[in-house]
């Protein structure tokens, strides 16, 4: 059946043109037509091509509705999603503004009409480092009233953490408490957030859309439309790489094992930058897979074995895993863990195998699939610069081994690499860009790098890049580990770098070489005068590695150094370091 014509005979087109336009527009929705009308009006306005005898539009273009999208992000996931919301919102006739929590003007939030919040949780239920100030202001007593603001929150997290999505949850509750109106329920995403996040974003834009007066025209924001991102888009598709070097950087007498991996791309390396990471898709330990299959009574199912090896997370045990297990099996004793509120304490230090062995039940392959989540890739800082290594990428991976509840445990990805990967093996990886961990734009700027343990990895990339590009700025590295003789990662390379001038200085802290423990923050304190002089001269300061203690201690040492060297009180010294952070001269990549 033919559709009724949209365009009247009086429209300023020939018959053939009218037929074409009718065919093209016949299947569009009202919103798409409104957008198109605004788009064409804006196009002509922007190019000045408004015909002298243009017929008056049926209705004047309505200003695009403002939408503010704020994100709290550490490793870029929330930031990427916020960008996606912005792009989709613009297509849907909004005038979006994407704001990092780092730059958020909290007192002005009350003036917003519509707010999308995308927030990740870090540490143990903490906000991402760049979001700490604004998060504190929103949670604090001086927060503005938000009556009249409509909002929705998308929370990012990882169910393996006890404080799952804590920051998104707290922000969601706080915005309501401040008077804002929640227009759609919060969604808490695990590491496989692509699908739930995309669905939430679609729902959010619907829920936040203003009531549509019929026949109205939406003005398109031409100033921003099509504005390109500053960074070059790097392909996010996983690619296969070949391991061409696999070396343990620790001595055979060390109690640590840190693997240097050199990976060769089959084609040109993706355009990674110093500061980016590679996500590595690991395989589970085959011995653990077999143990799980035995405990579940599912030995001999080859397809399931393969899925458990490469696709499912068979180690993480979260409260959600226990709930899914109880739902699948109806196990009464395991249910009591939940009913008695003991589940959080019980899962501490335990894995899926402990659950299945402690609460035996006949499981099916479908049960195991329902209970587990997809196996997430692990991020590793890239330890090389393409300017020096060409189509390769290098990683520095510390093997994770420990014992809990009398059972020896191994990290999925790090021990896969340490024990089961050798030169010639193939791995699947993809680049994870980090535009908040970048060398200074001006190559003459000095850099100070604090990277104990595997935290040194990105600084190997920084030094390679600055050497290959002959950057005149000075490079100063603080490195630390347990023992000088066993754990000095890339020692020869640093010595060569000192000789060829690509390192101006290196200060090391080997914690267990003397009775009292010495860490990088102690070296920072010792060198505080020189360090503050470098910073006064415009140096950038970088920290990479352990988030739990090291990164906080290093920041505290720098605040103390400012106070001491410049005679500042604690508040002024804190403000000096916060100023470095705001100016993007203090950057960290910690985990
Ligand atoms: C941006 C970024 C960059 C990174 N760069 C690097 C890098 O350059 N090099 C590097 O080695 N790692 C790096 N990591 C960490 C890396 O991604 C992995 O988290 C790490 O290798 C562990 O992964 P896994 O699969 O081996 O261990 P998993 O199977 O994920 O197990 C790790 C978990 O085991 C538990 N655990 C570990 N030790 C103990 C213990 N002693 N007692 C009790 N429980 C314990 C903890 O719950 C921990 O979360 C980076 C992380 C991020 C986010
Ligand atoms: C060191 C570290 C600590 C984390 N802590 C938590 C946590 O306490 N709770 C949680 O739900 N997720 C936690 N996560 C998971 C992150 O929230 C998750 O990876 C998220 O997708 C990161 O988003 P972002 O890239 O926007 O920072 C943690 C991740 C890392 C690497």
UniProtKB/TrEMBL annotation:
Signal peptide: none annotated. Its cofactor is FAD; FMN. It holds the Pfam family FAD_binding_1. FMN binds at residues 156-165. GO terms for biological process: cysteine biosynthetic process. Pathway: Sulfur metabolism; hydrogen sulfide biosynthesis; hydrogen sulfide from sulfite (NADPH route): step 1/1. GO terms for molecular function: flavin adenine dinucleotide binding; FMN binding; sulfite reductase (NADPH) activity. Residues 236-440 form the FAD-binding FR-type domain. Binds 1 FAD per subunit. NADP(+) binds at residues 511-512, 517-521, 553. PROSITE patterns: FAD_FR, FLAVODOXIN_LIKE. One of its GO terms (cellular component) is cytosol. It comes from the Bacteria. Coiled coil: none annotated. Alpha(8)-beta(8). The alpha component is a flavoprotein, the beta component is a hemoprotein. Component of the sulfite reductase complex that catalyzes the 6-electron reduction of sulfite to sulfide. This is one of several activities required for the biosynthesis of L-cysteine from sulfate. The flavoprotein component catalyzes the electron flow from NADPH -> FAD -> FMN to the hemoprotein component. PANTHER family: NADPH OXIDOREDUCTASE A, NITRIC OXIDE SYNTHASE-RELATED. This is Sulfite reductase [NADPH] flavoprotein alpha-component. The lineage of its organism: Bacteria, Pseudomonadati, Pseudomonadota, Alphaproteobacteria, Hyphomicrobiales. The gene is cysJ.
């Amino acid at each position: 059946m033919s559709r009724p014509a949209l365009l009247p005979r009086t429209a300023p087109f020939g018959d053939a043109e009218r037929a074409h336009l009718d065919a093209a527009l016949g299947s569009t929705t009202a919103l798409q037509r409104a957008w198109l009308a605004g788009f064409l009006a804006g196009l002509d306005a922007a190019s000045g091509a408004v015909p002298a005898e243009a017929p008056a539009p049926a209705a004047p273009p309505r200003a695009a509705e403002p939408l503010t999208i704020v994100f709290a992000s550490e490793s870029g996931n929330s930031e990427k999603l916020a960008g996606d919301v912005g792009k989709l919102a613009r297509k849907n006739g909004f005038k979006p503004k994407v704001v990092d929590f780092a730059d958020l003007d909290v007192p002005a939030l009350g003036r917003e009409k519509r707010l999308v919040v995308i927030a990740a949780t870090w540490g143990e239920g903490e906000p991402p480092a760049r979001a700490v100030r604004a998060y504190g202001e929103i949670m604090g007593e001086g927060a503005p009233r938000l009556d009249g603001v409509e909002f929705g929150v998308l929370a990012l997290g990882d169910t393996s953490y006890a404080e799952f999505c804590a920051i998104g949850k707290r922000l969601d509750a706080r915005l309501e408490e401040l008077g804002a109106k929640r227009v759609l329920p919060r969604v808490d995403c695990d590491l496989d957030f692509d699908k739930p996040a995309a669905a939430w974003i679609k729902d959010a834009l619907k829920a936040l859309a203003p009531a549509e007066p019929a026949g109205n025209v939406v003005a398109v924001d031409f100033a921003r439309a099509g504005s390109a991102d500053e960074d070059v888009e790097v392909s996010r598709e996983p690619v296969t790489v070949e391991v061409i070097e696999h070396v343990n950087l620790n001595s055979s007498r060390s109690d640590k094992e840190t693997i240097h991996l050199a990976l060769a791309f089959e084609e040109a390396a993706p355009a990674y930058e110093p500061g980016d990471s590679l996500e590595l898709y690991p395989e589970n330990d085959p011995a653990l897979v077999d143990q799980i299959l035995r405990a579940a009574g599912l030995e001999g199912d080859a397809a399931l074995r393969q899925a458990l090896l490469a696709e499912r997370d068979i180690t993480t045990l979260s409260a959600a895993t226990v709930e899914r297990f109880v739902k699948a099996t109806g196990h009464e004793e395991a249910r009591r863990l939940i009913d008695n509120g003991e589940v959080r304490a019980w899962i501490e230090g335990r894995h899926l195998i402990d659950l299945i062995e402690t609460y035996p039940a006949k499981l099916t392959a479908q049960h195991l699939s329902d209970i587990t989540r997809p196996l997430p890739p692990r991020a590793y800082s890239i330890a090389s610069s393409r300017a020096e290594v060409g189509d390769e990428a290098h990683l520095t991976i510390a093997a994770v081994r420990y014992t809990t509840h009398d059972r020896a445990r191994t990290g999925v990805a790090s021990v896969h690499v340490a024990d089961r990967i050798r030169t010639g093996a193939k791995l699947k990886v993809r680049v994870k860009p980090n535009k908040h961990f970048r060398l200074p734009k001006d190559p003459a700027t000095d850099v100070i790098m604090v990277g104990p343990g595997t935290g040194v990895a990105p600084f190997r990339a920084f030094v390679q890049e600055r050497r290959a590009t002959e950057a005149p700025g000075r490079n100063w590295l603080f490195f630390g580990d347990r023992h000088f003789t066993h754990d000095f990662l890339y020692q020869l390379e640093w010595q060569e770098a000192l000789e060829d001038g690509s390192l101006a200085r290196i200060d090391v802290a080997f914690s267990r070489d003397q009775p009292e423990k010495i860490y990088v923050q102690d070296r920072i304190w010792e060198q505080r005068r020189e360090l503050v002089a470098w910073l006064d001269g415009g140096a950038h300061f970088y920290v990479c590695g352990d988030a739990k203690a090291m990164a906080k201690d290093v920041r505290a040492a720098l605040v103390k150094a400012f106070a001491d060297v410049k005679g500042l009180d604690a508040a002024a010294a804190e403000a000096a370091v916060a100023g470095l952070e705001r100016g993007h001269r203090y950057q960290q990549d910690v985990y």
